Amino acid sequence: MMTKTRIKLAALPLLALLVGLLGAWAVGGSAWSVLGGFVASALVILASWQRAFANVQNALQSDAAVALAHETTARHDAELAETLYAQKENAESGQPSESGAADSEPKKPKRLAFFARGFRSGAGLFVAPFRLGAYVVLIVIFLALLRHNVFGVFSFLFGSFLALGALLVCLLIESKTRD
């Protein structure tokens, strides 16, 4: 029964899009604007929801997982500080590094891990590649509709609200079926 409900939930946004296209055709609006607004808004909404879901999952981590993450971060930061201090001392004394080129390879993943930790903790909350990509698609669709002279403001907004409404109804139905 759960599979049938999921199939119905997947069909609901498509049904809403079909109704919107028929509605735009009936009132003389631009069906391409409805389609563009629907697709672009659905992508933005889904990308934003994915980022919000990831933030909630991060917030719901257990205290032990958070403590372990802080301990690991502190250990990696201490190792990085020791490595940088050793490199600085070697550079000041004019001595070449003992390990040579073999030692430079393991340092790259540590540096990448350092930047990845910063991205996950602070900047990662605001920079979401999927959401940025969805906004790029929105802008491209908007400009393509303008270029072909089929952009209709009300049709585009109608398609956007159709996407929002269909996805909200899907969430409501899914939450009711879980209970």
Secondary structure topology:
Elements: H1 2-27, H2 31-59, H3 63-93, H4 101-121, H5 129-147, H6 153-178
Helix pairs in contact: 1-2, 1-6, 2-5, 2-6, 3-4
Task: Summarize this structure as a short list of keywords or feature phrases.
179 residues; elongated; mainly alpha; single chain
Count of individual beta strands? 0
Q: How do the SSEs run, as a string of H and E?
A: HHHHHH
Give the overall form: elongated
Strand content: under 5%
Unreliable stretches covering 5 or more consecutive residues? none
What do you see in this structure?
The protein has one domain. The protein has 179 residues and is an all-alpha fold. Helices cover 85% and strands 0% of the residues.
Short structural summary:
This protein has 179 residues and is an all-alpha fold.
